[in-house]
């Protein structure tokens, strides 16, 4: 294998989530999720945007799957809308909702694309939030029932399953800073939510194992922080330790090792006594995994600080309250270097650090990059094409980092680019474009960008081209015509 090659059978995929792309928010029995409610709360989402239509994937999925095939993708990671298949978060499934996913999966398989399901990507049914949401144990129990329903419907077709996407965001941004749905701001609830998300993962994994064939592969996608200290000062190093506990070990500790580390418990003891952790919970959470998904965008740089008025540059929105419990005396800094349209520093070394860390700590669980990508201010040229050379450079740098981690011994088996389509970007509405396929949000026309054509060639050959080799992508005619309304 050459230095530019990826292993045989390496997955080159792309990813989306249900609320960001599906639309059809009130069709076929779907009821509101916390994001439907959050979008209708004045001031929460830029421009008052909603996911009511999003990019209408619910009606345009055949064309979108054709696009994936044209772009040589061999895997597609997507999430199930809990509110679409179990509208109240309890009780029987709605078959019309499940039929949508059955049809989508069948079309993917017919095109030779591996379906990769995520059960929860932040869109909790509103009725479960009304009953207390993730700070309540019952929500984890409801999740296991939901997992069983979806597995029963799709388990004969789908082999790859992910329980949760980025539980850190669900807990910390939803219940801490309030910049994500449901918009609550209670640091004690952050810790309760984190535990019950962990428990949902464990109970959900057990439910999937009971319902799925033995060949099924079950994992979880986390967004670990590559935490770095501003200086070697002992106080800065301790700030790094504390944020590592809050960002990473609060999830990978129970999931991978069956423990909450004592320093995490001590650091947060003024907020909670952790009595919500019941006997048997850690054993339930610590389930054998077939895959660990790593979502990565930018490193985290911290220092100790007594000045609580310093701007917080942690990359997680500008809410008045920090998402970080018991960390008021820690400062977050912008890491040096070029930034994306999100203001996130472009630094692939953080991805390498994380891949090698989890290679060491998982005992050999296969790793997948389940999200990685760049927001750019993409605009069509006069001829209708969309050129995004900055994204090509970003993808090349991060894919090269993946290849280097593999050479260094990490068992990395796939890369899912975020995202397939420009879409609804949560509290930023439609103002940020992560897609390698441009979407005109008025006509909903899809146009592959330069980066889509570049990535298509990488997926086709399994080779990372030298810088500049494929940048003149207009010469590539391997991708189909734009998909119009």
From TrEMBL:
One of its GO terms (cellular component) is cytosol. Its EC number is 3.2.1.21. The keyword Hydrolase applies. Substrate binds at residues 20, 121, 165, 297, 418, 425-426. Signal peptide: none annotated. It is an enzyme of class 3 (hydrolase). It catalyses: Hydrolysis of terminal, non-reducing beta-D-glucosyl residues with release of beta-D-glucose. Gene3D superfamilies: Glycosidases. Pfam families: Glyco_hydro_1. GO terms for molecular function: beta-glucosidase activity. The keyword Amino-acid biosynthesis does not apply. InterPro entries: GH, GH_1_N_CS, Glyco_hydro_1, Glyco_hydro_1_AS, Glyco_hydro_1_beta-glucosidase. Keywords: Carbohydrate metabolism, Cellulose degradation, Glycosidase, Hydrolase, Polysaccharide degradation. The active site is at residues 166, 371. One of its GO terms (biological process) is cellulose catabolic process. SUPFAM superfamilies: (Trans)glycosidases (SSF51445). Belongs to the glycosyl hydrolase 1 family. This is Beta-glucosidase. It comes from Streptomyces pini.
